[in-house]
Amino acid sequence: MKEQLAKIQAEALSAIAQAASPAALEELRVRCLGKKGELTAILKQMGRLSPQERPAMGQLANDVRAAIEEALERAKKDLHAKALEARLQAETVDVTIPGRAVETGRRHPMYIALDEIKDIFVGMGFDILDGPEVELAEYNFDRLNAEEGHPSRDWSDTFYFDADSRVMLRSQTSPMQVRAMDSRKPPIRIIAPGRVYRKDEVDATHSPMFHQVEGMVIDKGVTMADLKGTLNMMVEQLYGKGTVTRFRPHHFPFTEPSCEMDVQCHKCGGAGCATCKGEGWIELLGAGMIHPRVLEMAGIDPEVWSGWAFGMGLERTAMRRFRIADLRLIFENDMRFLEQF
Ligand code: PHE
Protein backbone atom coordinates (compact mmCIF):
# COMPACT_ATOMS: atom_id res chain seq x y z
CA MET A 1 0.00 0.00 0.00
CA LYS A 2 2.87 2.29 0.77
CA GLU A 3 4.32 1.69 -2.67
CA GLN A 4 0.90 2.23 -4.27
CA LEU A 5 0.59 5.60 -2.55
CA ALA A 6 4.11 6.60 -3.59
CA LYS A 7 3.30 5.60 -7.19
CA ILE A 8 0.06 7.60 -7.23
CA GLN A 9 1.88 10.67 -5.93
CA ALA A 10 4.76 10.38 -8.41
CA GLU A 11 2.48 9.86 -11.41
CA ALA A 12 0.11 12.62 -10.37
CA LEU A 13 2.88 15.17 -9.88
CA SER A 14 4.49 14.44 -13.22
CA ALA A 15 1.10 14.59 -15.02
CA ILE A 16 0.31 17.89 -13.32
CA ALA A 17 3.68 19.31 -14.38
CA GLN A 18 2.80 18.52 -18.00
CA ALA A 19 -0.81 19.74 -17.96
CA ALA A 20 -1.24 22.53 -20.49
CA SER A 21 -4.66 23.91 -19.61
CA PRO A 22 -6.97 24.47 -16.63
CA ALA A 23 -9.29 21.86 -18.13
CA ALA A 24 -6.50 19.24 -18.14
CA LEU A 25 -5.74 20.07 -14.48
CA GLU A 26 -9.37 19.61 -13.50
CA GLU A 27 -9.44 16.26 -15.23
CA LEU A 28 -6.37 15.20 -13.25
CA ARG A 29 -7.92 16.38 -9.99
CA VAL A 30 -10.99 14.23 -10.58
CA ARG A 31 -8.91 11.24 -11.59
CA CYS A 32 -6.65 11.37 -8.51
CA LEU A 33 -8.74 12.88 -5.74
CA GLY A 34 -12.34 12.49 -6.89
CA LYS A 35 -14.92 10.13 -5.32
CA LYS A 36 -14.04 7.48 -7.89
CA GLY A 37 -10.41 8.55 -7.96
CA GLU A 38 -7.27 6.48 -7.40
CA LEU A 39 -6.57 7.83 -3.89
CA THR A 40 -10.11 7.22 -2.69
CA ALA A 41 -9.87 3.66 -3.96
CA ILE A 42 -6.75 3.12 -1.81
CA LEU A 43 -8.38 4.67 1.26
CA LYS A 44 -11.25 2.22 0.91
CA GLN A 45 -8.78 -0.60 1.44
CA MET A 46 -7.62 0.87 4.79
CA GLY A 47 -10.08 -1.39 6.62
CA ARG A 48 -7.97 -4.37 5.74
CA LEU A 49 -4.96 -3.01 7.62
CA SER A 50 -4.10 -3.91 11.21
CA PRO A 51 -4.92 -1.21 13.83
CA GLN A 52 -1.20 -0.64 14.32
CA GLU A 53 -0.56 0.05 10.67
CA ARG A 54 -3.62 2.22 10.15
CA PRO A 55 -2.55 5.60 11.65
CA ALA A 56 0.76 5.69 9.82
CA MET A 57 -0.85 4.73 6.53
CA GLY A 58 -3.65 7.26 7.11
CA GLN A 59 -1.08 9.93 7.71
CA LEU A 60 0.78 8.96 4.56
CA ALA A 61 -2.44 9.03 2.48
CA ASN A 62 -3.22 12.52 3.80
CA ASP A 63 0.29 13.68 2.93
CA VAL A 64 -0.12 12.36 -0.62
CA ARG A 65 -3.48 14.12 -0.98
CA ALA A 66 -1.98 17.38 0.34
CA ALA A 67 1.01 17.14 -2.00
CA ILE A 68 -1.23 16.58 -5.02
CA GLU A 69 -3.59 19.37 -4.02
CA GLU A 70 -0.71 21.76 -3.57
CA ALA A 71 0.80 20.79 -6.93
CA LEU A 72 -2.58 21.30 -8.61
CA GLU A 73 -2.94 24.72 -7.01
CA ARG A 74 0.53 25.80 -8.03
CA ALA A 75 0.08 24.54 -11.62
CA LYS A 76 -3.20 26.44 -11.85
CA LYS A 77 -1.51 29.66 -10.77
CA ASP A 78 1.35 29.11 -13.21
CA LEU A 79 -1.00 28.50 -16.12
CA HIS A 80 -2.94 31.63 -15.25
CA ALA A 81 0.24 33.71 -15.08
CA LYS A 82 1.42 32.32 -18.41
CA ALA A 83 -1.88 33.14 -20.09
CA LEU A 84 -1.73 36.67 -18.75
CA GLU A 85 1.86 37.03 -19.90
CA ALA A 86 0.94 35.86 -23.41
CA ARG A 87 -1.96 38.27 -23.58
CA LEU A 88 0.15 41.20 -22.48
CA GLN A 89 2.74 40.24 -25.06
CA ALA A 90 0.14 40.11 -27.82
CA GLU A 91 -1.40 43.42 -26.87
CA THR A 92 1.76 45.45 -26.49
CA VAL A 93 1.52 48.92 -27.90
CA ASP A 94 4.63 50.32 -29.48
CA VAL A 95 4.48 53.88 -28.22
CA THR A 96 7.46 54.84 -30.39
CA ILE A 97 5.51 54.45 -33.68
CA PRO A 98 4.76 57.96 -35.04
CA GLY A 99 1.05 58.84 -34.81
CA ARG A 100 -1.26 59.34 -37.74
CA ALA A 101 -1.86 63.06 -38.18
CA VAL A 102 -5.43 64.25 -38.60
CA GLU A 103 -5.69 66.01 -41.93
CA THR A 104 -7.74 69.17 -41.87
CA GLY A 105 -9.74 69.84 -44.99
CA ARG A 106 -9.66 73.18 -46.72
CA ARG A 107 -11.78 75.11 -49.13
CA HIS A 108 -11.54 74.24 -52.81
CA PRO A 109 -10.08 77.11 -54.88
CA MET A 110 -13.24 77.36 -56.97
CA TYR A 111 -15.36 77.79 -53.84
CA ILE A 112 -12.93 80.40 -52.50
CA ALA A 113 -13.54 82.33 -55.73
CA LEU A 114 -17.31 81.76 -55.45
CA ASP A 115 -17.37 82.99 -51.84
CA GLU A 116 -15.53 86.13 -52.92
CA ILE A 117 -18.03 86.69 -55.74
CA LYS A 118 -20.96 86.18 -53.35
CA ASP A 119 -19.45 88.68 -50.88
CA ILE A 120 -19.04 91.29 -53.60
CA PHE A 121 -22.65 91.00 -54.80
CA VAL A 122 -24.23 90.63 -51.37
CA GLY A 123 -22.37 93.86 -50.53
CA MET A 124 -24.24 95.51 -53.42
CA GLY A 125 -27.63 94.28 -52.21
CA PHE A 126 -28.04 91.17 -54.36
CA ASP A 127 -29.83 88.03 -53.13
CA ILE A 128 -28.33 84.60 -53.79
CA LEU A 129 -30.65 82.08 -55.47
CA ASP A 130 -30.35 78.33 -55.97
CA GLY A 131 -32.18 76.40 -58.66
CA PRO A 132 -32.55 72.97 -60.28
CA GLU A 133 -29.89 71.38 -62.46
CA VAL A 134 -32.58 69.21 -64.09
CA GLU A 135 -34.48 71.95 -65.84
CA LEU A 136 -37.37 72.38 -68.25
CA ALA A 137 -36.36 73.27 -71.80
CA GLU A 138 -39.08 75.88 -71.48
CA TYR A 139 -37.00 77.79 -68.92
CA ASN A 140 -33.61 76.98 -70.42
CA PHE A 141 -34.64 77.98 -73.96
CA ASP A 142 -38.20 79.14 -74.80
CA ARG A 143 -38.65 81.68 -72.03
CA LEU A 144 -35.16 82.93 -72.84
CA ASN A 145 -36.21 83.68 -76.41
CA ALA A 146 -34.16 80.80 -77.85
CA GLU A 147 -36.52 79.71 -80.58
CA GLU A 148 -37.03 76.17 -81.89
CA GLY A 149 -34.06 75.39 -84.12
CA HIS A 150 -31.56 77.44 -82.15
CA PRO A 151 -28.21 75.56 -82.37
CA SER A 152 -27.79 75.27 -78.57
CA ARG A 153 -31.03 73.22 -78.46
CA ASP A 154 -29.53 70.54 -80.66
CA TRP A 155 -29.26 66.96 -79.30
CA SER A 156 -25.53 67.09 -79.98
CA ASP A 157 -25.12 70.02 -77.56
CA THR A 158 -27.56 69.29 -74.73
CA PHE A 159 -28.33 66.34 -72.40
CA TYR A 160 -32.06 65.56 -72.66
CA PHE A 161 -34.04 63.15 -70.48
CA ASP A 162 -36.94 62.55 -72.85
CA ALA A 163 -37.57 62.09 -76.56
CA ASP A 164 -39.64 65.28 -76.69
CA SER A 165 -36.66 67.38 -75.54
CA ARG A 166 -38.67 68.91 -72.71
CA VAL A 167 -36.59 67.94 -69.66
CA MET A 168 -32.84 68.47 -69.70
CA LEU A 169 -29.69 69.16 -67.72
CA ARG A 170 -29.53 72.93 -67.82
CA SER A 171 -26.91 74.18 -70.28
CA GLN A 172 -26.63 77.56 -68.54
CA THR A 173 -27.73 79.23 -65.30
CA SER A 174 -29.83 81.71 -67.30
CA PRO A 175 -33.12 79.84 -66.62
CA MET A 176 -32.66 81.26 -63.10
CA GLN A 177 -33.42 84.68 -64.65
CA VAL A 178 -36.84 83.36 -65.61
CA ARG A 179 -37.39 81.66 -62.25
CA ALA A 180 -36.47 84.90 -60.44
CA MET A 181 -38.85 86.93 -62.64
CA ASP A 182 -41.63 84.40 -61.99
CA SER A 183 -41.18 84.33 -58.22
CA ARG A 184 -40.37 87.99 -57.49
CA LYS A 185 -41.58 91.43 -58.38
CA PRO A 186 -39.13 94.06 -59.66
CA PRO A 187 -36.90 95.67 -58.57
CA ILE A 188 -34.88 92.43 -58.62
CA ARG A 189 -31.19 91.98 -57.86
CA ILE A 190 -30.00 88.35 -57.76
CA ILE A 191 -27.06 86.11 -58.44
CA ALA A 192 -27.51 82.36 -58.98
CA PRO A 193 -24.44 80.10 -58.91
CA GLY A 194 -24.60 76.45 -59.95
CA ARG A 195 -23.64 73.56 -62.18
CA VAL A 196 -24.38 73.47 -65.88
CA TYR A 197 -23.94 70.71 -68.49
CA ARG A 198 -22.95 70.62 -72.14
CA LYS A 199 -21.82 67.89 -74.48
CA ASP A 200 -18.20 69.09 -74.52
CA GLU A 201 -15.05 66.99 -74.66
CA VAL A 202 -12.69 67.39 -71.70
CA ASP A 203 -9.60 69.50 -72.38
CA ALA A 204 -7.58 72.26 -70.67
CA THR A 205 -10.51 74.71 -70.93
CA HIS A 206 -13.62 72.48 -71.34
CA SER A 207 -15.62 70.00 -69.27
CA PRO A 208 -19.14 68.51 -69.84
CA MET A 209 -19.99 69.78 -66.34
CA PHE A 210 -18.92 73.19 -65.18
CA HIS A 211 -20.15 76.06 -63.04
CA GLN A 212 -21.63 79.44 -63.82
CA VAL A 213 -22.76 82.39 -61.80
CA GLU A 214 -25.79 84.15 -63.22
CA GLY A 215 -26.43 87.76 -62.27
CA MET A 216 -29.49 89.88 -62.99
CA VAL A 217 -30.83 93.32 -62.18
CA ILE A 218 -34.30 94.62 -63.12
CA ASP A 219 -35.26 98.13 -62.10
CA LYS A 220 -36.41 101.41 -63.54
CA GLY A 221 -33.92 103.23 -65.73
CA VAL A 222 -31.24 100.50 -65.69
CA THR A 223 -28.72 100.91 -68.51
CA MET A 224 -25.65 99.28 -70.06
CA ALA A 225 -23.54 101.76 -68.04
CA ASP A 226 -24.80 100.07 -64.83
CA LEU A 227 -23.84 96.69 -66.24
CA LYS A 228 -20.32 97.81 -67.15
CA GLY A 229 -19.83 99.65 -63.87
CA THR A 230 -20.97 96.70 -61.78
CA LEU A 231 -18.86 94.15 -63.66
CA ASN A 232 -15.75 96.38 -63.59
CA MET A 233 -16.18 96.81 -59.87
CA MET A 234 -16.48 93.04 -59.39
CA VAL A 235 -13.34 92.42 -61.47
CA GLU A 236 -11.31 94.98 -59.51
CA GLN A 237 -12.38 93.44 -56.21
CA LEU A 238 -11.65 89.93 -57.44
CA TYR A 239 -8.39 90.51 -59.29
CA GLY A 240 -7.08 93.76 -57.90
CA LYS A 241 -7.29 97.45 -58.74
CA GLY A 242 -6.42 98.39 -62.28
CA THR A 243 -7.37 95.00 -63.81
CA VAL A 244 -8.13 95.79 -67.45
CA THR A 245 -11.40 94.59 -68.99
CA ARG A 246 -12.78 94.74 -72.52
CA PHE A 247 -16.39 94.48 -73.73
CA ARG A 248 -16.98 92.99 -77.17
CA PRO A 249 -20.30 92.92 -79.03
CA HIS A 250 -21.83 89.44 -79.09
CA HIS A 251 -25.17 87.70 -79.55
CA PHE A 252 -27.43 85.95 -77.03
CA PRO A 253 -31.13 85.35 -77.79
CA PHE A 254 -32.19 86.73 -74.40
CA THR A 255 -30.16 89.97 -74.31
CA GLU A 256 -30.12 92.96 -76.65
CA PRO A 257 -27.58 94.42 -77.01
CA SER A 258 -25.29 91.55 -75.93
CA CYS A 259 -21.61 91.51 -75.17
CA GLU A 260 -18.80 89.38 -73.86
CA MET A 261 -16.36 90.67 -71.27
CA ASP A 262 -12.68 89.74 -71.37
CA VAL A 263 -9.96 90.40 -68.80
CA GLN A 264 -6.41 91.04 -69.84
CA CYS A 265 -4.31 87.86 -69.61
CA HIS A 266 -2.54 87.57 -66.24
CA LYS A 267 0.32 85.57 -67.75
CA CYS A 268 1.45 87.89 -70.51
CA GLY A 269 -0.27 91.16 -69.63
CA GLY A 270 -1.90 91.30 -73.05
CA ALA A 271 1.08 90.47 -75.27
CA GLY A 272 -0.27 87.00 -76.14
CA CYS A 273 0.87 83.63 -74.74
CA ALA A 274 -0.17 79.97 -74.46
CA THR A 275 -2.61 80.59 -71.58
CA CYS A 276 -4.64 83.12 -73.59
CA LYS A 277 -3.98 81.26 -76.86
CA GLY A 278 -2.07 84.28 -78.19
CA GLU A 279 -5.04 86.59 -77.74
CA GLY A 280 -3.79 88.65 -74.78
CA TRP A 281 -7.32 88.43 -73.30
CA ILE A 282 -9.33 85.78 -71.48
CA GLU A 283 -13.09 85.59 -71.98
CA LEU A 284 -14.84 85.67 -68.60
CA LEU A 285 -18.54 86.15 -69.17
CA GLY A 286 -21.45 86.87 -71.44
CA ALA A 287 -23.83 89.69 -70.64
CA GLY A 288 -26.30 92.17 -72.02
CA MET A 289 -29.50 94.13 -71.55
CA ILE A 290 -32.44 91.78 -70.97
CA HIS A 291 -34.40 91.38 -74.20
CA PRO A 292 -37.83 93.10 -74.02
CA ARG A 293 -39.44 89.83 -75.21
CA VAL A 294 -38.02 88.00 -72.15
CA LEU A 295 -39.43 90.64 -69.80
CA GLU A 296 -42.81 90.48 -71.58
CA MET A 297 -42.99 86.69 -71.36
CA ALA A 298 -42.51 87.06 -67.57
CA GLY A 299 -45.28 89.66 -67.41
CA ILE A 300 -42.89 92.54 -66.75
CA ASP A 301 -43.62 95.70 -68.78
CA PRO A 302 -40.46 96.57 -70.76
CA GLU A 303 -41.75 100.16 -71.15
CA VAL A 304 -41.48 100.58 -67.36
CA TRP A 305 -38.69 98.23 -66.36
CA SER A 306 -35.31 97.45 -67.87
CA GLY A 307 -32.53 95.17 -66.74
CA TRP A 308 -29.23 93.54 -67.40
CA ALA A 309 -27.88 90.05 -66.89
CA PHE A 310 -24.57 88.27 -67.04
CA GLY A 311 -23.37 84.69 -66.84
CA MET A 312 -19.81 83.99 -65.87
CA GLY A 313 -17.80 80.77 -65.91
CA LEU A 314 -16.75 80.00 -62.36
CA GLU A 315 -13.84 77.68 -63.25
CA ARG A 316 -12.37 80.32 -65.51
CA THR A 317 -12.77 82.97 -62.84
CA ALA A 318 -10.94 80.76 -60.32
CA MET A 319 -8.25 79.96 -62.92
CA ARG A 320 -7.64 83.66 -63.47
CA ARG A 321 -7.83 84.37 -59.74
CA PHE A 322 -5.30 81.68 -58.73
CA ARG A 323 -3.33 81.48 -62.00
CA ILE A 324 -4.30 77.88 -62.68
CA ALA A 325 -3.28 76.77 -66.16
CA ASP A 326 -5.52 73.71 -66.69
CA LEU A 327 -9.26 73.40 -65.95
CA ARG A 328 -8.93 69.67 -65.24
CA LEU A 329 -6.95 70.40 -62.06
CA ILE A 330 -10.12 71.87 -60.58
CA PHE A 331 -11.99 68.55 -60.79
CA GLU A 332 -9.23 65.94 -60.35
CA ASN A 333 -8.94 66.36 -56.56
CA ASP A 334 -5.19 65.81 -56.58
CA MET A 335 -4.09 66.59 -53.00
CA ARG A 336 -0.83 68.11 -54.23
CA PHE A 337 -2.90 70.69 -56.11
CA LEU A 338 -5.58 71.27 -53.46
CA GLU A 339 -3.05 71.72 -50.65
CA GLN A 340 -1.77 74.89 -52.28
CA PHE A 341 -4.83 76.96 -51.41
N1 PHE B 1 -26.00 82.06 -70.51
C1 PHE B 1 -24.97 82.60 -71.34
C2 PHE B 1 -23.95 81.50 -71.66
O1 PHE B 1 -23.99 80.47 -71.03
C3 PHE B 1 -24.28 83.76 -70.68
C4 PHE B 1 -25.17 84.96 -70.49
C5 PHE B 1 -25.87 85.12 -69.33
C6 PHE B 1 -25.28 85.92 -71.48
C7 PHE B 1 -26.67 86.25 -69.15
C8 PHE B 1 -26.06 87.04 -71.30
C9 PHE B 1 -26.76 87.20 -70.13
O2 PHE B 1 -23.11 81.66 -72.51
Put the structure in a nutshell.
The protein has 341 residues and is of the alpha+beta class. It has 12 helices and 9 strands.
Q: How does this structure look, described?
A:
By secondary structure, the chain is α+β, with helices and mostly antiparallel strands. β6 and β7 form a beta hairpin. α1 runs antiparallel to α2. The model has no long low-confidence stretch (mean pLDDT 91). The structure holds phenylalanine (PHE).
Q: Could you estimate the helical fraction of the residues in percent?
A: 40-55%
Question: Total number of β-strand segments?
Answer: 9
**SSE topology string:** HHHHHEEHEHEEHEEEHEHHH
Present as ligands are: phenylalanine
Report the uncertain regions.
Answer: none
Distance between the termini: 93 Å
State the oligomer. single chain
Largest sheet: 7 strands, mixed
Look at the helices and sheets and give the structural class: alpha+beta
Strand sequence of the main sheet, in spatial order? 1-4-5-9-8-7-6
Shape: rod-shaped
Radius of gyration: 44 Å
Number of helices: 12
Amount of beta strand: 15-25%
The residue-averaged pLDDT reads 91
What is the topology?
Blueprint: H1 2-18, H2 22-33, H3 38-43, H4 53-90, H5 109-123, E1 127-128, E2 134-136, H6 137-140, E3 167-169, H7 175-183, E4 188-197, E5 209-219, H8 224-239, E6 245-252, E7 255-264, E8 281-290, H9 292-297, E9 306-313, H10 314-322, H11 328-332, H12 335-338
Parallel strand pairs: 1-4
Antiparallel strand pairs: 2-3, 4-5, 5-9, 6-7, 7-8, 8-9
Bound molecules: phenylalanine.
Write a concise keyword list for the protein shown above:
single chain; 341 residues; alpha+beta; seven-stranded mixed β-sheet; two-stranded antiparallel ribbon; 12 helices; 9 strands; rod-shaped; binds phenylalanine
